[in-house]
Design goal:
Elements: H1 2-8, E1 27-28, E2 34-39, E3 48-51, H2 55-64, H3 69-72, E4 76-81, E5 86-91, E6 94-100, E7 113-115, E8 119-125, E9 133-141, E10 144-148, E11 164-166, H4 168-181, E12 186-191
Parallel strand pairs: 4-12, 10-11
Antiparallel strand pairs: 1-2, 2-3, 4-5, 5-6, 7-12, 8-9, 9-10
Length: 192
Protein backbone atom coordinates (compact mmCIF):
# COMPACT_ATOMS: atom_id res chain seq x y z
CA UNK A 1 0.00 0.00 0.00
CA UNK A 2 2.90 2.33 0.63
CA UNK A 3 3.69 2.06 -3.06
CA UNK A 4 0.49 3.91 -3.85
CA UNK A 5 1.56 6.70 -1.51
CA UNK A 6 5.01 6.77 -3.10
CA UNK A 7 3.47 6.97 -6.56
CA UNK A 8 1.31 9.89 -5.55
CA UNK A 9 4.19 11.65 -3.86
CA UNK A 10 2.22 11.99 -0.64
CA UNK A 11 4.04 12.21 2.64
CA UNK A 12 3.40 9.32 4.94
CA UNK A 13 2.56 9.99 8.53
CA UNK A 14 2.55 6.34 9.47
CA UNK A 15 4.52 4.88 12.28
CA UNK A 16 4.97 1.19 11.96
CA UNK A 17 6.60 -0.46 14.91
CA UNK A 18 8.67 -3.42 13.93
CA UNK A 19 7.83 -6.49 16.00
CA UNK A 20 10.35 -7.41 18.66
CA UNK A 21 11.23 -10.54 16.75
CA UNK A 22 11.94 -8.72 13.47
CA UNK A 23 15.32 -9.11 11.88
CA UNK A 24 17.59 -6.12 12.25
CA UNK A 25 19.04 -6.11 8.75
CA UNK A 26 17.39 -3.71 6.29
CA UNK A 27 16.66 -5.03 2.85
CA UNK A 28 16.16 -2.88 -0.18
CA UNK A 29 12.58 -3.01 -1.38
CA UNK A 30 10.76 -1.23 -4.17
CA UNK A 31 12.92 1.61 -5.57
CA UNK A 32 15.34 1.54 -2.65
CA UNK A 33 12.75 1.87 0.11
CA UNK A 34 14.10 -0.34 2.89
CA UNK A 35 11.88 -3.14 4.09
CA UNK A 36 12.33 -5.46 7.04
CA UNK A 37 11.35 -9.10 7.16
CA UNK A 38 9.16 -9.99 10.12
CA UNK A 39 7.04 -12.85 11.27
CA UNK A 40 3.32 -12.58 10.78
CA UNK A 41 1.11 -11.49 13.66
CA UNK A 42 0.34 -15.05 14.66
CA UNK A 43 4.09 -15.72 15.16
CA UNK A 44 4.22 -18.68 12.77
CA UNK A 45 7.77 -19.04 11.53
CA UNK A 46 6.60 -20.28 8.13
CA UNK A 47 4.75 -17.03 7.39
CA UNK A 48 7.45 -14.47 6.76
CA UNK A 49 6.16 -11.07 5.68
CA UNK A 50 7.74 -7.74 4.75
CA UNK A 51 6.87 -4.76 6.93
CA UNK A 52 7.54 -1.09 6.44
CA UNK A 53 10.21 0.68 8.41
CA UNK A 54 9.40 3.93 10.25
CA UNK A 55 8.03 6.75 8.07
CA UNK A 56 11.28 8.73 8.42
CA UNK A 57 13.20 5.93 6.68
CA UNK A 58 10.65 5.88 3.87
CA UNK A 59 10.84 9.66 3.42
CA UNK A 60 14.64 9.52 3.27
CA UNK A 61 14.57 6.71 0.69
CA UNK A 62 12.09 8.63 -1.44
CA UNK A 63 14.17 11.81 -1.24
CA UNK A 64 17.45 10.14 -2.15
CA UNK A 65 16.37 7.17 -4.25
CA UNK A 66 15.06 6.87 -7.79
CA UNK A 67 11.41 6.86 -6.71
CA UNK A 68 9.97 9.91 -8.46
CA UNK A 69 6.75 10.34 -10.38
CA UNK A 70 8.68 10.38 -13.65
CA UNK A 71 10.61 7.21 -12.77
CA UNK A 72 7.47 5.37 -11.67
CA UNK A 73 5.02 6.78 -14.20
CA UNK A 74 4.72 6.28 -17.94
CA UNK A 75 7.86 6.78 -20.01
CA UNK A 76 5.99 8.81 -22.65
CA UNK A 77 3.22 11.28 -21.86
CA UNK A 78 1.06 12.75 -24.61
CA UNK A 79 -0.88 15.74 -23.29
CA UNK A 80 -3.58 17.28 -25.47
CA UNK A 81 -4.91 20.67 -24.41
CA UNK A 82 -8.23 21.34 -26.13
CA UNK A 83 -8.38 25.01 -25.12
CA UNK A 84 -5.01 25.84 -26.69
CA UNK A 85 -5.26 23.20 -29.46
CA UNK A 86 -1.77 21.93 -28.64
CA UNK A 87 -0.10 18.64 -27.85
CA UNK A 88 2.87 18.38 -25.52
CA UNK A 89 4.95 15.20 -25.66
CA UNK A 90 7.14 14.33 -22.71
CA UNK A 91 9.70 11.53 -22.57
CA UNK A 92 10.93 10.58 -19.09
CA UNK A 93 9.33 13.78 -17.77
CA UNK A 94 11.08 16.13 -20.21
CA UNK A 95 9.26 18.05 -22.95
CA UNK A 96 10.47 16.90 -26.37
CA UNK A 97 7.69 18.22 -28.64
CA UNK A 98 4.94 20.85 -28.61
CA UNK A 99 2.68 20.69 -31.67
CA UNK A 100 -0.52 22.27 -32.95
CA UNK A 101 -3.49 19.91 -33.18
CA UNK A 102 -7.11 19.98 -34.24
CA UNK A 103 -9.66 18.44 -31.92
CA UNK A 104 -13.46 18.23 -32.26
CA UNK A 105 -15.17 20.92 -34.27
CA UNK A 106 -18.65 22.26 -33.61
CA UNK A 107 -21.18 19.49 -33.01
CA UNK A 108 -18.51 16.88 -32.16
CA UNK A 109 -16.67 15.91 -28.99
CA UNK A 110 -13.11 14.93 -28.19
CA UNK A 111 -13.29 12.92 -24.95
CA UNK A 112 -11.31 14.13 -21.95
CA UNK A 113 -9.48 11.83 -19.56
CA UNK A 114 -6.45 9.57 -19.30
CA UNK A 115 -5.77 6.46 -21.39
CA UNK A 116 -3.16 4.01 -22.57
CA UNK A 117 -3.10 3.48 -26.34
CA UNK A 118 -4.64 0.13 -27.25
CA UNK A 119 -4.15 -0.08 -31.02
CA UNK A 120 -1.88 1.42 -33.69
CA UNK A 121 -2.02 1.41 -37.49
CA UNK A 122 0.38 2.88 -40.02
CA UNK A 123 -2.72 3.44 -42.18
CA UNK A 124 -6.32 3.17 -41.07
CA UNK A 125 -9.49 4.15 -42.89
CA UNK A 126 -12.46 5.45 -40.93
CA UNK A 127 -15.44 3.15 -41.18
CA UNK A 128 -17.66 5.87 -39.77
CA UNK A 129 -16.61 8.80 -42.01
CA UNK A 130 -16.59 7.70 -45.65
CA UNK A 131 -13.45 5.58 -45.44
CA UNK A 132 -11.38 8.73 -44.70
CA UNK A 133 -7.65 7.98 -44.37
CA UNK A 134 -6.13 8.19 -40.89
CA UNK A 135 -2.35 7.78 -41.33
CA UNK A 136 -0.24 6.88 -38.28
CA UNK A 137 -3.25 6.25 -36.06
CA UNK A 138 -2.81 5.74 -32.34
CA UNK A 139 -6.17 4.68 -30.86
CA UNK A 140 -6.56 5.69 -27.24
CA UNK A 141 -10.29 5.50 -26.38
CA UNK A 142 -13.05 3.61 -28.17
CA UNK A 143 -12.83 4.81 -31.79
CA UNK A 144 -10.88 7.98 -31.00
CA UNK A 145 -7.32 8.27 -32.25
CA UNK A 146 -4.41 10.60 -32.72
CA UNK A 147 -3.59 10.63 -36.43
CA UNK A 148 -2.17 12.63 -39.33
CA UNK A 149 -4.32 14.98 -41.38
CA UNK A 150 -3.88 16.52 -44.83
CA UNK A 151 -5.75 19.63 -43.58
CA UNK A 152 -2.66 21.24 -42.05
CA UNK A 153 -3.99 24.80 -42.45
CA UNK A 154 -6.71 23.95 -39.92
CA UNK A 155 -4.25 22.83 -37.22
CA UNK A 156 -4.49 25.01 -34.13
CA UNK A 157 -8.30 25.23 -34.51
CA UNK A 158 -11.09 22.76 -33.70
CA UNK A 159 -11.89 20.92 -36.94
CA UNK A 160 -12.13 17.14 -36.43
CA UNK A 161 -14.98 14.73 -35.79
CA UNK A 162 -13.47 14.02 -32.37
CA UNK A 163 -10.05 12.58 -33.12
CA UNK A 164 -6.84 14.48 -32.44
CA UNK A 165 -5.32 15.55 -35.77
CA UNK A 166 -1.61 16.23 -36.26
CA UNK A 167 0.67 17.42 -39.05
CA UNK A 168 1.75 14.30 -41.03
CA UNK A 169 5.42 14.71 -40.03
CA UNK A 170 4.50 15.06 -36.36
CA UNK A 171 2.10 12.10 -36.48
CA UNK A 172 4.84 9.95 -38.00
CA UNK A 173 7.33 11.01 -35.30
CA UNK A 174 4.80 10.36 -32.52
CA UNK A 175 3.89 6.97 -33.98
CA UNK A 176 7.58 5.99 -34.04
CA UNK A 177 8.03 7.17 -30.43
CA UNK A 178 5.04 5.17 -29.17
CA UNK A 179 6.22 2.12 -31.10
CA UNK A 180 9.74 2.53 -29.65
CA UNK A 181 8.58 2.64 -26.01
CA UNK A 182 5.54 0.40 -26.45
CA UNK A 183 1.92 1.50 -25.97
CA UNK A 184 1.84 0.15 -22.40
CA UNK A 185 4.50 2.72 -21.44
CA UNK A 186 2.52 5.64 -22.89
CA UNK A 187 -0.16 7.77 -21.23
CA UNK A 188 -2.51 9.94 -23.31
CA UNK A 189 -4.27 12.74 -21.48
CA UNK A 190 -6.84 15.06 -23.00
CA UNK A 191 -8.01 18.07 -21.03
CA UNK A 192 -10.09 21.19 -21.65
Amino acid sequence: MYRAFALLGLSLCLTVAAPAHAATDDRSGFDGIPMRPSLSSNDRADELAMTLPPAADIAQALATGPATRQALGPKVQIRVDISSQTMTVLVHGKVVHVWKVSTAGRGYVTPTGFWTPYRMHVMWHSRKYDNAPMPHSIFFHKGYAIHATPHIKRLGKPASHGCVRLHPDNAKALFALVRQYGPSNVRVSVEQ
